[in-house]
Amino acid sequence: MFVSVAVFCLYRTTLLPGVDFGDSGSIQTTVGSPLLTPRDGYPLYFAIGNALLALTHADPAYAMNMASSLEGALACGLFVVVATSLSGSVWAAVGGATLFAVSYTFWSQGVTAEVYGLHMLCVLASLALLLRWERQPTTARLAAFFACYAIGFGNHLSMILLAPGFTAFLLLAEPRGWRSLLSPRVIALAVGLALMGASQYLWNLRTMWLLPQPPDGVWAAARTFWFDVTKSDWRETMVLSVPRSMLRDHAAMYWFDLRQQFGIGGVMAAVVGALALGYTCVKRATLLALLYLVNVAFAFSYDVGDAHVFYLPSHLVVALLASVGASAAGTLALDGRGRGLAGLLLLAYAGVRGYLDFPALDRSRDWRAAGVLNALTANLDDQRAVLLVDLNWQIANGLSYFASNVAREVAVARIRDVLLYAPALIQSNLSGGRQVVANEHAAKLLSGEYGPLFEIRDERDAPRITLADTARSVSPGARYVLCVLKPTKDFTVDRNDVRAALDTLTGGAVVEMPAGDYAVVAGLAGSQPALAFGNDAPFRRRVYLADVSVQIRMDAWLSADTIRRMGFGHAVARQHHTLIIERGVSFATFGDDGNPQEQAYFANLFERPRRYDVRMGGHKE
Length: 621
Description:
alpha+beta; five-stranded mixed beta sheet; 24 helices; 14 strands
């Protein structure tokens, strides 16, 4: 319980305060709704979220962010139970739980609305009940394990990846022989409890008949349900789809990711734990080995933009093995008396890692998504204006939340949904006295489809604010960090703009960003930069700017990562989160205390959006 409280306080301190982009924005939009479509999935997750929302009456975005922190904290508490059973040492278990709690990916998922905290909780609950059955293999305990495992599918279908490890362990650990598990009684029990777990999806299935176009019969409903709940349309193109030419790169990415979570010390402890467990208990070693290998193989072969989150179950196994390793090392060094000491050393190691990563994982002041959405919807309401948008899907999910919970007065239409009859729609609203506003991509679609039929101009009648403009506004001698990371295919970096900004910031000393997918220039405005470095692989560099220590850390693998809730890197000054570095251009100035004074983003999700006024062609003022 103490571990859960401590982890909850840590995650609560670094919690994202509001809306997020991507899947998080979709989750924040959906929570509280009585309707849950098959495409939404996650009935267990949303049931818990709805209950927490009803109890707290909090803003839905904040409530779901807090739900993630609570679920992650409970998972860490349950980790202690499982790790104690595996290692025989409470302190080693606490050390491993802390190491897992402060691991980069799990921590980042615990401060925003994501399903992975609950997923780890379900995995650990299943493990705890399985080890409980091992100690006393009764039918009641087996049923409890089956039930817990089945319920876990209501949160995430990747629970299926645990099946090989769980099955092998049951067959090895059954004292009456593996054939007893194939008895009609046990099979009926397993099937019945599996159906009970699947019943959670009746919520999703029921919604299909409440939609404007309900399915045509039960079989049509079943086909649509399976297609949507498993997301077959895009999983078929992503699972086992990593090109052969990228296998070496993915292996390098995994080694980077493993060190990012636990450091070399944590990995070494896990290796010791694996060897010790293999020597002392083959069936438990087999269980953890299969859990680890199957999940690593799946994530390794999954060609998706956030593959790093699918490594989380394997990270859990590594942390459990680190607990076993600490206990085994303590036993070897000082017999039984060394277990506690080794556990305390692992705890201290995890504490140091948590302290060093804290600023980078602190999202408590991250209002960037809300800032973009505020700029997009400012001064619009459905009585006076209609907003037409064509947005990156991550921003679109955030806008869905914003329009339904924050700026309810804004009338929004996605241009691709109305493009066929856009002239009639726009003419009708203009005739009714409403302004028609479009974001940049929607304006381009209108112009490309209808040409001179519409007159489209910048709503604010002002030139675009560029990076060079931002650089010219920086006071001489001010501390700054400028990062350019290889953008995603949706965005293009304006290299001429970057050159002009560098010319201003460095007093003409540097006019080109250093070569590499990851590049940074940092210094005092108007002077030779203190740091100008680029590389094609992630790196960390420390520089002193007017006696302020600044760490630049690149925390993503660009060839594999297109989605990073926590950003792709960080600038940390005086243990403050100065800048979340995104793909594209990220820029910040900061003062003596390390807190940011100005931040700007270009060629990425957080670039300030432009709005355009749309009128019928030939309109005169």
